[in-house]
From TrEMBL:
Pfam families: HAMP, HATPase_c, HisKA. Residues 238-437 form the Histidine kinase domain. This is histidine kinase. It is a multi-pass membrane protein. The chain crosses the membrane at residues 12-34, 158-180. GO terms for cellular component: plasma membrane. InterPro entries: 2C_sensor_his_kinase (IPR050980), HAMP_dom (IPR003660), HATPase_C_sf (IPR036890), HATPase_dom (IPR003594), His_kinase_dom (IPR005467), HisK_dim/P_dom (IPR003661), HisK_dim/P_sf (IPR036097), Sig_transdc_His_kin-like_C (IPR004358). Residues 178-230 form the HAMP domain. Its main location: membrane.
Amino acid sequence: MFFRRLPGLSTIHSQITGVILLSLAITVLGGSFLKQRVESGYSLVDVEELADSVFTISSILKTATPEERDIVLQAADRAGWHFTLRPRALAETFKSSWPGESVLDATMDWLFSPDGRQTPIGGWKTFVDDKRVVSAEIDDKTILVLDGLPSTAFWSEVLDYLVAVITLIVLFSSFGVWAITRPLRKIASAAANADITSGRVIFEEEGSVEIVAVARSLNGMSDRITDMIHGRTRMLRGVSHDLRTPLTRLRLRIERVGDGQLRDMLLADISRIDSLLKESLSYLRDDHHREQVETIDLATTLQTICSEFDDVGHKINYIGPNHLSANCKPLAITRAVTNLCENAVKFGDKVAIELKRSGDKVVVDVSDNGPGIPKQSRAQVLEPFFKLNAARTDGNAGFGLGLSIVGEIVQAHRGTLELLDGEPSGLLARLTFPADLQADSVTCT
């Protein structure tokens, strides 16, 4: 909005003040211009001014003799005033509307009803024989009636009110959208789609002082969260790495144990700990944040994954086209599908990968015929370090990080991960992400 470019109007308070002053200027200038244009085509009547004239003449006629009354009425008639003296009983026939009056005219008269000090007989809006009149009392038997008014008597203040209301609505609506609503929506959208682990700026620091302060606070909070995550990640990496040296020494010492059964049990525990460390280090890697988006043949990538599992004795069927191009992070997607396949072959003997395209989305389904996951636990299994105590766990289970890694990779691709019931049994893990993912929509550091 142009207020931002004006010196001294950097805050919302000053911008609102500027809008009010601009509205007043437009009302004064625009109202005067509109009034001149309307007066050139229509005869504008100020009912309050007419009523004041009627009350003034009636006050003169109250103390005048019949001959003086005739002189006053003749003088008024020569001046263009259509005054008549009518019986007091005529007031009983006054009506507040006439058949030809439109709804708009009636509404305008109701909204902008005059508020003069003295009210004419019958109110501010009275009709006699479909003619609008203004009347005042002379005595108990006579009233003074001014006729010749338009059926709908406009008054000049209406134009000022209309110009002021329309100007304020338009200017404040535009100001609210461009200076407040639009920036806040951008902040909310950016915050909702922010990838904290990438450390990217959440929102551009521009606009009014208040909006810049909000954006700067969000960016500062993002930096603090990123620093905290990186600090804890470095600590856990160091711990996991340092544990490998004593584990290696333990393995060498255990190899010299004479009891074969005891030696095998101790080596199994060492292997278990080593596998858990590898899983932890794999989770703590953030390669999918640094990897660049590329155009790959996703169908070929999935077929390669099936072949690699087949080489180690796990049969995985591929269902889908021979070729399908998609924009993604190749290593990250390969890692996500591999993790799903590793989970599937642990708990089922029939595993399949299905690839299809739905509109502008790519859908990858990894299904098995295992025991599945209860619906009430499907949201929890996506959390790090959560493990089920049901059928999909065994003695060789890890830390429960595989699905968490998949969830983070899919989120980095602006996609979704769904855990559904397999047909006729088992689990179906569905990955959905944009086929034409743009490089600038996924932040890499």
